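Thread: zinc ion complex, take 2
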Amino acid sequence: MNKPLDSSLSSVFDVHVHPIRSVISAKSLIDEMDRSGVSKAVILALDLEPNILTTDLKLREEIIDDLWAYSYFINPEQLLDSMTRILQTGVTSNDQVAEMRNSYPDRFIGFGSVNPSKSKSYVSSILDEILLLGLHGIKLIPTLQFFHPQKNKNVKRIFKFAAKQNWPILIHTGKDPGPFEIPTLRYVQYSHPRFWEKLVKKTTVKVIFAHLGGFGATDDESWINSALDIARNNSNIFLDTSAVTYALEDPNTVAKLRDIGFDHVLFGSDHPVVHGTSIEHSKNIILKSPILTEEEKRMILFENAQKLFSS
Ligand SMILES: [Zn+2]
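Output below.
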């Protein structure tokens, strides 16, 4: 029997929130969730190395090479500086996420993060740390952690560990804001969902592709289509709506998602990193959509995440 839609208003589950220390505190996030009717949120750590673009000269050279086509009108040094500022703002430790989760254990689920670009011993010590802190999943982000999903050996280790712990892995797919939207950057291209296809076929790990596979200003449709194709063929794949909720206003995308099954779609807000939006704004796009059924809205906004995190 269908529950009235009002029940979802008081029980939204947001699977994609960044507890960035310089922008939000645990209390201000809880206030924002209360305002938006969000009862639970997944808060994500981001294991980034803020000074990597000055200390790793090989990486720096790769990025300057990738920017060559733009070097007549953009100074690569300035872009590297702006990338560094993004890394400095975004870095969010596992400790920080655990501390926040501990202050509101009924409202937050904490995901740890580990940077696959680091050494094998670093990766195993961080995985142990995530386990000890009692976090419940892992966030990976090729754009800001600078790795290739298929060429990086630590990625398989991380998946093996996650499978053993029954942790979901949330993967940033799609581009990132600002300089990380420049399509000639190899680490932007490595965030294409297709690079995960082989691995997700072989694993039991539940994988969430963030941003429906395709956040970005240009050609995001082909990225989203690739993520949808992978989800269609692999029942362990989920897609979150963060930063691309507007895609659910497009009848074509909705028809494709319906074909895969809306049980694979999770509400995410990406709060507070998407300028000019709020959790409530993103929620209302789904809630007020004339092309989604009431049942689909409830599944996206709450039920699918509830099932995923109680299994
Ligand atoms: Zn995000």
